[in-house]
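Summary of Year 1 activities. Much of the first year was spent building the evaluation harness for sequence design. The harness presents a backbone, in tokenized form, and records the residue chosen at every position. We chose the following record to illustrate the format because it has been used consistently in internal testing since the harness was completed.
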């Protein structure tokens, strides 16, 4: 390649894999100069099947699956490469912070599972030019109290356009990222609070609030069921000014996606699930504040609930059976009430589409919402406001009852086509 001009070499190396670029960058200074920016512009550790599956459901707003630059290799998975990547950055943090700033400032997008024992969060503020941030926190590698090295007063990320936060992420980090969202056009949240072990519900000092306990107070085993499985709770208190919606600025937000585990009211289940409605209501208050802060620009709202199911629960064969057996949809009532209240109290002039997933709407086969269930009532409410709405089947949230942890964050794709089955739709034309 020595005889080829830089323009030709650049075209050639744009078709190289991450592993090939790494090898080229080590051959000479010239190739390193041309290859290094490609290695650092987009940091993506998922397998290509992960985003291919995601794009089938909802295309990414910035980078399609085919355009992403994958670090996944034939010999080393994305998980291994992510761990080495974080270790290298942490070494630079202590040994050569100037080089750390130089490299991190080249990154425009980050998409990774955060599973490393290395404290990635203290490095995050150095990605000053990142425009797309997709972080999937793995609960099995997470402890809120172990991430105290993060500086919440660090300068915010001023270039952000797309943010996705999923799973277990430190509250201070989530607050700081949300404070950086004044330029964000698309926001996706599926944040979880710290898990609760089953045995914790049987301790004498465990708070037993009536609204947190599913079994009736007159039940002799009230608060004492052996092996109670605690459905993971949605995170609350993650907004930078969560008590004052007017302080939250989201002047460019056009697409907002929300996801939470949810309770089930299934009489056929083999375990009695513990569900915290107080945690759910607190999370909904934060979500409502985000809706209020984006009411002028919001065009699309996507809302998903995943019925909490403990691994080993044999009441039904799978999550689809759980969902189809739920006839009253009461697990969605608080969420539907909050959304209707938010859309009633404020005007949303740009809102044209609402997507529901995992929410019972009492529908006929791919028809209109019927029956007096919260999801169906909400769809009919949207229809009166001229907003198009689709409801799809959704999936379950499989968690471990012993430690209360959710599923491990995924590096590649699963085959769950039934999740996208259309249940009902309403036309927004008045």
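For this record, the design step produced the sequence shown next.
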């Amino acid at each position: 390649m020595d005889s080829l001009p830089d323009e030709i070499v650049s075209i050639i190396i744009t078709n190289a894999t991450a592993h090939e670029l790494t090898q080229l960058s080590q051959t000479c200074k010239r190739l390193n100069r041309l290859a290094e920016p490609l290695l650092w512009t987009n940091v993506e550790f998922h397998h290509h099947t992960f985003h291919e599956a995601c794009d089938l459901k909802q295309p990414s707003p910035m980078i399609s699956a085919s355009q992403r630059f994958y670090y996944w290799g034939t010999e080393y998975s994305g998980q291994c490469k992510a761990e080495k990547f974080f270790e290298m950055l942490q070494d630079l943090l202590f040994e050569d912070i100037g080089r750390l700033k130089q490299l991190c400032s080249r990154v425009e997008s980050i998409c990774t599972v955060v599973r490393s024992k290395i404290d990635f969060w203290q490095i995050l503020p150095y990605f000053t030019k990142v425009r797309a941030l997709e972080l999937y926190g793995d609960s099995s590698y997470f402890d809120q109290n172990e991430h105290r090295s993060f500086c919440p007063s660090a300068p915010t990320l001023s270039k952000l356009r797309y943010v996705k936060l999923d799973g277990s992420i430190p509250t201070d980090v989530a607050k700081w990222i949300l404070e950086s969202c004044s330029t964000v056009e698309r926001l996706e949240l599926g944040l979880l609070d710290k898990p609760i072990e089953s045995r914790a519900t049987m301790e004498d000092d465990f708070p037993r609030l009536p609204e947190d306990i599913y079994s009736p107070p007159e039940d002799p085993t009230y608060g004492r069921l052996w092996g109670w499985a605690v459905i993971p709770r949605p995170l609350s208190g993650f907004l930078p000014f969560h008590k004052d919606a007017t302080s939250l600025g989201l002047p460019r937000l056009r697409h907002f996606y929300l996801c939470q585990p949810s309770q089930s009211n299934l009489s056929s289940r083999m375990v009695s699930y513990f569900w915290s409605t107080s945690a759910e209501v607190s999370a909904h208050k934060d979500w409502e504040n985000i809706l209020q802060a984006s009411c002028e620009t919001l065009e699309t709202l996507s809302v998903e609930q995943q019925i909490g199911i403990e691994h080993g629960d044999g009441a039904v064969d799978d999550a689809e059976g759980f969902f189809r057996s739920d006839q009253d949809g009461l697990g969605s009532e608080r969420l539907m009430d909050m959304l209707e209240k938010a859309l009633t109290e404020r005007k949303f002039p740009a809102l044209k589409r609402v997507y529901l997933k995992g929410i019972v709407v009492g529908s006929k086969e791919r028809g209109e919402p019927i029956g007096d269930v919260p999801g169906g009532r909400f769809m009919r409410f949207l229809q009166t406001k001229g907003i198009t709405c689709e409801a799809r089947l959704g999936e379950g949230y499989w968690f471990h009852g012993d430690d209360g942890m959710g599923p491990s964050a995924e590096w590649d794709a699963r085959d769950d086509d039934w999740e996208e089955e259309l249940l009902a739709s309403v036309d927004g034309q008045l």
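Residues 213-217, 219-227 have pLDDT under 50 and may be disordered. Quantitative recovery figures across the full test set are reported in Table 2.
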